[in-house]
């Protein structure tokens, strides 16, 4: 498969995964709490990510999108697209700020440092990355994903072989888990809607810089399949050890640390990388909305937005997640609906052309 398609897939996965996925908290609330039905939920989410990734990449490449606004105007029309653009741009910045705050929380919990240290460290990394060219950004963001994939495979294998609870006990424990929706299918759709809104802007910009529709479409689909596989593996490992994860804020890290202190350190590094990749994706897409990448104006805007984001991050990670993420989920549902309508229209037009020829 084309190397660019694989890089695009890893970048797509890296931006969406973020710190919440790597820590295991998102998977617990959106999937594991539904018991055995969570397997079906992970499959549904993976299919949605693959389909949406492929369609967004196709639309972006076809239109040669310079920013996510170009794609939004195609999907929603000029006026509604402009409104969606304003809303999404605002939330992009909000998620970027939340990632800076997440780095502060991680450094405090793992190393006992002041949250300011972690937030400043992450801000500096993000600014330095955004000063590179686009290809280097894709390379750096995509590098973090294979590390997490390897760690999830190791943790899943370990969890399955060391689980000391029977299925009935695990099912009972899963019923006591907090979930985001009354049904597993709705939980999977909500997970996809929130995360596709996060991944859409960077996927649109990266795909728009290529003229090879087949390559970018494959990259989007491959990234979605990879996301589905990661969700499935992490869900299985968490479910099989529910009896040992009560009250854990970072359940994945707990499993990794139990396996080995070295694996625990590697997982801490992995979570940091995921926070980094999401932060880079958010601030990159935000800055690309107002200026062309690899220009002096883009670098100045990146520095300014990250500095402002650093100050706002001191509000706290939990507060930011509680206020920004739910609203972004609703925006994601609108985006999914628009992509589906665009896909149906494309199929209808193609069918009409075939009929006319016949």
UniProtKB/TrEMBL annotation:
UniProt xrefs under InterPro entries:
YkvI-like
Q: Which UniProt keywords apply?
A: Membrane, Transmembrane, Transmembrane helix
Q: Which chain regions cross the lipid bilayer?
A: 34-54, 86-107, 113-133, 140-161, 181-207, 219-242, 262-286, 298-321, 327-344
The protein here is known as Membrane protein YkvI
What organism does the record attribute this protein to?
A: Pollutimonas subterranea
């Amino acid at each position: 498969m084309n190397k660019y398609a694989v890089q695009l897939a890893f970048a797509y996965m890296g931006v969406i995964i973020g710190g919440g996925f790597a820590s295991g908290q998102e998977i617990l609330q959106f999937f594991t709490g539904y018991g055995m039905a969570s397997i079906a939920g992970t499959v549904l989410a993976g299919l949605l990510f693959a389909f949406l990734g492929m369609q967004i990449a196709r639309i972006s490449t076809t239109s040669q999108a310079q920013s996510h606004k170009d794609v939004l105007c195609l999907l929603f029309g000029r006026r509604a697209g402009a409104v969606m653009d304003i809303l999404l741009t605002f939330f992009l910045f909000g998620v970027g700020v939340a990632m800076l705050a997440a780095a502060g929380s991680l450094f405090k919990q793992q190393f006992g440092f002041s949250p300011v240290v972690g937030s400043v460290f992450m801000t500096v990394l993000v600014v330095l990355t955004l000063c590179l060219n686009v290809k280097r950004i894709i390379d750096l963001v995509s590098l973090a994903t294979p590390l997490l994939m390897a760690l999830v495979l190791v943790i899943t294998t370990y969890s399955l072989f060391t689980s000391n609870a029977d299925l009935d006990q695990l099912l009972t424990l899963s019923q006591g888990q907090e979930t985001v929706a009354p049904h597993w299918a709705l939980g999977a759709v909500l997970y996809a809607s929130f995360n596709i809104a996060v991944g859409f802007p960077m996927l649109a910009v990266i795909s728009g810089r290529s003229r090879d529709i087949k390559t970018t479409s494959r990259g989007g689909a491959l990234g979605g399949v990879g996301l589905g596989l990661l969700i499935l593996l992490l869900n299985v490992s968490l479910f099989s050890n529910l009896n040992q994860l009560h009250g854990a804020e970072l359940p994945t890290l707990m499993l990794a640390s139990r396996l080995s202190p070295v694996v625990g350190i590697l997982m801490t590094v992995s979570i940091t990388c995921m926070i980094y990749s999401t932060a880079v994706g958010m601030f990159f897409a935000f800055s690309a909305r107002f200026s062309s990448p690899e220009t002096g104006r883009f670098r100045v805007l990146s520095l300014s937005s990250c500095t402002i984001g650093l100050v706002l991050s001191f509000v706290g990670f939990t507060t930011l997640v509680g206020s920004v993420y739910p609203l972004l989920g609703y925006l994601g549902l609108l985006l999914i609906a628009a992509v589906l309508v665009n896909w149906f229209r494309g199929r209808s037009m193609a069918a009409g052309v075939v009929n006319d020829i016949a």
